[in-house]
Amino acid sequence: MPRIFSGIQPTGNLHLGNYLGAIRNWVALQADYECIFCIVDLHALTLPQEPEELRSATREVTAAYIASGIDPERCIIFNQSMVPAHTQLAWLFGCLTPLGWLNRMTQFKDKAGKDRDNAGLGLYSYPVLMAADILLYRATHVPVGEDQKQHVELARDIAGAFNRRYNTDFFPLPEPQIFGAATRVMSLRDGTKKMSKSDESDYSRINMTDDADTIALKIRRAKTDPQPLPHSVKEAEMRPEAANLLGIYAALTDETMETVVAHFAGKNFSDFKAALAERASATLGRIGGEMNRMMADPGYIDGVLRHGAERAQAIAEPHLKLVFDMTGLLRL
Ligand code: AMP
Ligand code: TRP
Question: Given its phi and psi angles, is residue 217 left (phi above 0), alpha (psi -120 to 50 degrees) or beta?
Fold first, then answer.
C-alpha cells in the first residue's frame, strides 16, 4: 500500500482553512493509503514560540485530527520531536543539499522578509527537515496545500541526490498531492488575503473550536460588498468577499460553486450568511466540541501521541540504520 506522510505545525488557532484545505482531505485518504500524520513541533520552532503555548497547540492539532475523523488506530499520529531520527536524517540530507536549492525557496524569502541576516538557520534549512520527515518513512505521497509544493519537490531532489550519491534506489521520489484550489479559504475581513493562524484579528477567521454563536457572529460581521449575491460564477470571481463566502458554503456542503451561486443568486447577504452560519456550525460545532472535550482531559491525547510515536519509531529506526550503513557511519 502506498504511504502518505503529512504534517501541520502546532502554532495555535487552527481554523476553517486548515480544516477544509488540509485535515478534511486527509480523513478521506485513510481508506486507500497507509497514513502518517505528524504534528511538526520542530518546524514550529523555526519562529519564536512560548513553551506552554507550543505544548498546548501540539495537543490541539492532535485533537483536531482525531475529532475530524482521523482514526488513531488506523493511522499513525505523533509529534515530530518524539522521533529523533527526523533530525538525524535531516543532518545527512543537509550535507547533500546545495545552498542554491535552498535559495530558491519562496517561503523562506517571505518569512525572512528584508532582514535576511537575522533570520534563523532553522528557518532556512526547514525544507531539509521536511524532506527528512517524508523520506524517513519512505513515503510516496504528500498531501499539502499549494504553498508547500515547492518543498515537496525539494524532497524529491534530495531523495534523488542521495540515491545517486550512494548508488541506490532506497528513497522513493515523493509526489505532492494538491487538493482543489476551491478550498483556499480567505480571510473574513479581506477576501484577497488567506485565512491565517497569525492574523491579529480573530474576526478574520473561524477557529475550529469556535462555538455556534461565535461562528454566527463572525459570519454576520464578515466583510461583503453592498450588492445582492452574484448571478454567475464569473461575477462572483470579480467580488472576492462574495466568492470566498460562496466557496466556503460549497466546500461545506460538497456542492459545486455553480450550484451554490445559482441557489443564492440575487438574494441578500443577510439571508445567505444565516444559511452559511448554520452549515458552518453544523460541521465545526461537533468537531470543535469534541476538541474542547479532549483538551480538557489531555490524558487521552497524550496516550495517542505516545502510541503513535512508538509505531513511527518502529518504521523510522530500521530505515535510519540502513541509511547510516550506506553512508559509512560506523555503528558498533
Ligand atoms: P498552516 O496553517 O500554514 O500551518 O497550514 C497547515 C495546513 O493547512 C497546510 O496544508 C495548508 O495548506 C492548509 N491551509 C492553511 N491555511 C489555509 C487556507 N486559508 N485555506 C486552505 N488551506 C489552508
Ligand atoms: N512545512 C509544512 C507547513 O508549514 C509542514 C510540514 C512539515 C510538512 N513537514 C512536513 C508537510 C512533511 C508535509 C510533509 O505546512
Answer: alpha
